[in-house]
Design brief:
The complex is a heterodimer of chains A (268) and B (97).
Chain A (H helix, E strand, L loop, with lengths): L1 H18 L3 H21 L3 H26 L14 H22 L16 H9 L4 H22 L10 H15 L22 E2 L5 E2 L5 H6 L7 H11 L5 H18 L1
Antiparallel strand pairs in A: 1-2
Chain B lengths: L1 H20 L3 H26 L3 H31 L13
The chains are: A mainly alpha (268), B mainly alpha (97).
């Protein structure tokens, strides 16, 4: 019963990995497949692998995927341009052929009645696995340690970045600022803060200079590169004036109306 | 037990097609993980079919190797991304010429 509920979910999630554009969504769908697999392991009388599947695959490997996605950029989506002509169609046809061959071949084989693991698991599944792992497969188990150490060393070597230039200290930065001022006359002091004299005080709104133009240096370069900088230029001010009516008479009238309304309310 | 093996075959096929079709190196890697998982499912199924725990040991070793492989593979993807600002498998083509 568990199988027939989980199998469609797993196949749909796995198919989703093929079709979603964003890598993060693919990682989430892979998590669905892996957790469902863990449940199937539990159904198949493998409680140890059930735990290992969740801890190692869903816990460690998928987290690693997500961390790398965060470093690479979450919105790094796949390009849909085919570099080899007809490759996608050919790959799909080949995949379908492989699937049909496998399923047809499996449909023609009779596996017979399952022996079941009651006897092998009689002393406990973990004890049974430990008995075999530390007797017959002990050499493979020890070679695994060499593999893990090599992988850890390899990851450290690959992820290590050599410092090419010496680290820039605060004194270096101050000296560079003064040098730039002496040579090119750039501004020595800190950059203007965003939102000054603008309608909004948010960091994504450029400050307005006395002549009404936006100060480019007041917003972060990252926001400018993303194109999420909001403008508070003069046309916004005009839009506001249009909304509230004539700016010259409006404040006085608003004040009078407000006082009149309050007196009326008091009388009522 | 055949249905478990059929599911495993279907998942393996989907992983195969994913490796061939997708261009993002990280998604290609996820599809490889999907294939490894499909093989694990068939190993565990046959373990139950034959009443023998050796299949579960094999699945356990596959998980260990997959963990090591993911660590190194993702480190390679990170290194390539750092130098060419792209995680697409088509961009790493210098050895072709």
């Amino acid at each position: 019963m568990t199988f027939w509920i989980l199998a469609p979910v797993m196949v749909l999630a796995a198919l989703g990995i093929l079709f979603v554009r964003k890598a993060v969504h693919a990682a989430m769908l892979l998590a669905v497949v892996m957790i469902s697999l863990a449940v199937l392991y539990a159904v198949l009388e493998a409680p140890f692998l059930f735990a290992v599947q969740i801890i190692v695959y869903t816990g460690a490997i998928l987290m690693l995927f997500l961390f790398v996605l965060m470093l690479v950029g979450v919105d790094a989506s796949d390009s849909v341009v085919e570099t080899i002509k007809g490759q996608r169609v050919l790959a799909t046809l080949g995949g379908l052929a492989l699937g049909v061959i496998l399923v047809v071949a499996l449909a023609q084989t009779a596996l017979g009645a399952a022996v079941g693991l009651e006897e092998a698991n009689s002393g406990g599944n973990i004890q049974g696995i430990a008995n075999i792992l530390f007797s017959r497969w002990v050499f493979a188990f020890e070679v695994t340690s060499a593999l893990l150490i090599t992988a850890a060393l390899g990851a450290m070597v690959l992820a290590h970045r050599e410092r090419i230039a010496p680290r820039e200290t605060q004194a270096d930065r101050a000296a560079r600022r003064m040098r730039d001022y002496a040579e090119r006359g750039t501004h020595v002091g800190p950059l203007p803060p965003p939102g000054v004299f603008a309608r909004s005080n948010a960091v994504d709104t450029a400050a307005l200079l006395p002549d009404g133009t936006a100060a480019e240096a007041s917003v972060s370069r990252v926001l400018a590169a993303r194109g999420t900088v909001r403008s508070a230029p003069t046309d916004d001010v005009e839009e506001l004036q249009r909304q509230i009516g004539d700016p010259a008479t409006q404040p006085e009238r608003a004040g009078k109306d407000g006082s009149a309304a309050s007196t009326e309310e008091d009388q009522a | 037990m055949t249905e478990y093996i059929v599911l495993s075959a279907i998942l393996f096929t989907i992983g195969c097609v994913g490796v061939l079709v997708r261009r993002n190196a990280i998604v290609v890697f996820m599809c490889i993980e999907l294939m490894l998982n499909a093989c694990n499912l068939s190993l565990v199924t046959f373990s139950r079919q034959h009443g023998n725990l050796d299949g579960q040991i094999a699945a356990f070793f596959v998980m260990v190797v997959a963990a090591a492989e993911v660590v190194v593979g993702l480190a390679i993807i990170m290194t390539i991304f750092r130098t060419r600002r792209s995680a697409s498998v088509d961009d790493a083509s210098l050895l072709k010429y």
